[in-house]
Amino acid sequence: MLPIASIATLCILSYVTYKYIIYPAFISPLSKIPNAHPSSPFSPLWILLKRFTDQENRSIHAAHVKHGDIVRLGPNEISVNCVDDGIRTIYSGGFEKWPWYHQFDNFGVPCMFSTAESKPHAHRRRVIANVYSKSFLQSSPEMLKISQTIIFSRVLPLLESAAMEQKPVEVLDLSHAIAMDFIVAFIFGLQNGTNFTQDVSARRQFFDTYQKRRPYRFWSSELQGLKSILNRIGPIIEPKFVQEATNYLENWTLTWTKAAEKSCATKAPDEEHIPSTTPVVYSQVHQSTLKTPFPYPQDLQIATELQDHWAAGHETTGITLCYLFHELSLHPSLQQQLRKEFLTLSPTLTYPPPTPSLPTPQTLDALPLLHACLLETLRIHAAIPGPEPRTTPSKPTSLAGSPPLPAGVRVSAQPYTLHRRADVFPDPEAWKPERWLDASEEQRAEMGRWFWAFGSGGRMCIGSNFAMQEMKLITAAIYTNYTTHIVDDEGIEQIDAYTAHPRANKLVLRYERVEN
Ligand code: HEM
Fold first, then answer.
1. 308, 461, 473, 494, best to mutate for ligand 1 pocket (most atoms within 8 Å of CB)
2. Cβ atoms of residues 114 and 445 within 8 Å
3. What is the pLDDT of residue 274?
4. Which end of the chain is more exposed for a tag (fewer CB within 10 A), N or C?
5. Measured between alpha carbons, how far is 118 from 106 in angstroms, rounded to an integer?
6. What is the mean pLDDT of the segment spanning 162-173?
7. Mean pLDDT of the 219-240 span
8. pLDDT given for residue 355 in this prediction
9. Between 63 and 19, the higher pLDDT residue
10. Exposure letters 404-433 (e unless 16+ CB within 10 A, then b)
11. 180 CA distance to ligand 1 centroid (A)?
12. Which residues fall within 8 angstroms of residue 159, CB to CB, at 6 or more apart?
């Protein structure tokens, strides 16, 4: 007779073999999905390693090219990249966010973006969304004043002197700075905002602090539990300066939140000296926290939201502008065609302006070539090309021809792959704005279904209209007055990450005046 210890060992071994080998490889509904790697049914190590070494998007894409619209990345993780039975199902509401998004909490408090559950998210979004709607932005006196100030008093004077002095400009940094000035002024009020466009040393200090945390994102995104344990022992995986940088940025947001609160309570300052606007987003977020009770102190509840908006708003927009300017610099004839389009605006954006007035956002929005250039940049240089993870719901759901999937599976789509469908976007790696202009109605609608730079559904980018409006204005203002030429684009290729900036973190251009 076998001793009890041997029977127990046999039972444990059988259980472990069943749970970790037989079930995931042969019985789980996920076993019918092609594996991205032979180890995928048994261990998440392969995909973790790809994430750790910044190869995630391209590795997932390669797996889709090989196996089709759906692939298994780990024992409990799949990637789906198609529209029908894909993003239309996953992102239409029933699938909540994977806890991965907690890395975007600030002050230890979830913001709208990082909230996993649909209900509290929808509550917040309903109140905040109004100020980011196209109709609100196009008619907003605050947005008009912010735009006039940033374009005519900051961006164009800066580029004018760079052009006159033939001084090359680092354009990624500048694009981030302009985008930051726009969003911060809209959130906190122009009088409380940054002037990173002109104040290069303040800009550098701030962005250095913001960016130096990036290499350590892996731990807070994928191994949060392990990170917390190790951080208690000491700075083993995350140097002290990462937390110090986070504290600095959070204090910065708290300071401006208080300033915005004060602006709302007092009369506008002397307009002649400081152009001022209502802190639009602050006011709206403040309203939303009054309407819904939250389990966190009100000031932190407001500040976490506002911090997320300036972070999401400047980085993505800066990256997109940088790639648009790079592509235009590679295509001088397009610069000419665009300029022709810009000269149809009334008033034009010529600098110095006879009066500092702007064409309406509606007329800018209606320029077809500008729109096509932006869409094409967002397609092939998506600022967020990486996976957007969700959780399968309790109701078993089939995706891309899979068997019904159980609850709690991590599932994502990624713009990187959706935007490279050769049957939808022929010659997908090429930047071709004309594909949006020459397409038939049907082709354009199909491209629109696959275009996913801002996501889709109830968690789609809330700032997409804001971003499009500011990017169109900035581009029109620059290319009405200057042509751009590449000085140094070494390392311009995008890194492989959720948010993807140029590898070398720079693009240097030369600005040349065109006579109007
Ligand atoms: C070119 C510029 C931009 C791009 C490409 C972009 C892209 C995206 C994408 C792809 C998402 C969904 C991400 C996910 O679910 O994982 C998102 C969400 C979001 N974006 Fe943007 N974004 C841009 C500009 C902005 C701006 C200017 C703001 C300013 C408010 C903003 C604020 C947000 C917020 C708050 C969310 C979360 C929405 C929610 O959960 O309801 N974004 N963005």
1. 461
2. no
3. 65
4. N
5. 19
6. 97
7. 83
8. 83
9. 63
10. ebeeebbbbbbbbbbbbbeebbeeeeebbb
11. 14
12. 169, 478, 481, 482, 511
Residue with tokens 């009100």: 298
Contacts 24+ apart (CB under 8 A), 377-381: 377/320, 377/323, 377/324, 377/327, 377/431, 378/320, 378/451, 378/453, 378/454, 379/419, 379/425, 379/451, 379/453, 380/419, 380/428, 380/429, 380/430, 380/431, 381/319, 381/320, 381/323, 381/327, 381/431, 381/494
What contacts 24+ positions apart, CB below 8 Å, involve 213-220?
213/242, 213/245, 213/246, 216/242, 217/103, 217/497, 218/51, 218/52, 220/103
Separation between Cα atoms, residue 81 and residue 70, nearest integer Å? 6
Tokens of 471: 């990017």
- Say if the ipTM goes beyond 0.90: yes
How many helices (H) and strands (E) in the chain?
Answer: 22, 7
Residue 258's contacts (CB-CB under 8 Å, 6 or more residues apart) are none
Amino acid at 31: S
Please name the residues in contact with 124: beta carbons below 8 A apart, sequence gap of 6 or more: 112, 115, 288, 292, 305
User: What spacing in Å lies between the alpha carbon of 33 and ligand 1's midpoint?
Assistant: 30
Residue 321 CA from chain centroid, whole number: 13
Secondary structure element (H or E) that encloses residue 78, with its range: strand 77-80
Output the pLDDT for position 224.
84
Residue range 56-76: mean pLDDT, rounded? 98
d(CA 318, CA 407): 37
Q: What are phi and psi of 407, to 5 degrees?
A: -70, 155
pLDDT tens digits for range 6-61: 888 889 998 888 888 888 888 999 999 999 999 999 999 999 999 999 999 999 99
DSSP β-bridge partners for residue 410: 77, 391
Hey, which bits of 237-289 come out as E strands? none
465 lines ligand 1 (CB under 6 A): no
- Residue position matching structure tokens 């290499």: 215
Residues ≥6 apart with Cβ < 8 Å to 255 = none
Q: Give phi and psi for 383, each to the nearest 5.
A: -70, -30
CA–CA dist 497, 384 (Å, integer): 8
Neighbours of 161 (CB within 10 A): 11
Residue 309 Cβ < 6 Å to ligand 1: yes
- Kindly indicate the confidence band of residue 72, based on its pLDDT and cuts at 50, 70 and 90: very high
CB 380, CB 319: distance < 8 Å = no
Distance from C-alpha of 325 to C-alpha of 178, rounded to nearest angstrom: 14
373 is in an annotated binding site: no
Which of 392, 376, 279 has the alpha carbon at shortest distance from 331?
Answer: 376
Overall average pLDDT of the 287-306 stretch: 85
Q: What is the DSSP string of 91-151?
A: TTTTSPBPGGGGGG-BTTB--TTT--SHHHHHHHHHHHGGGGSHHHHHH-HHHHHHHHIII
Closest residue by CA, ligand 1 atom 42? 463
Residue 465, SS3 per DSSP: helix
The answer, yes or no, to whether any atom of ligand 1 lies below 6 A from the CB of 104, is: no
494 phi and psi angles, rounded to 5 deg: -75, 140
Q: Which domains does the chain have, with CATH numbers?
A: 101-402+451-513 (1.10.630.10)
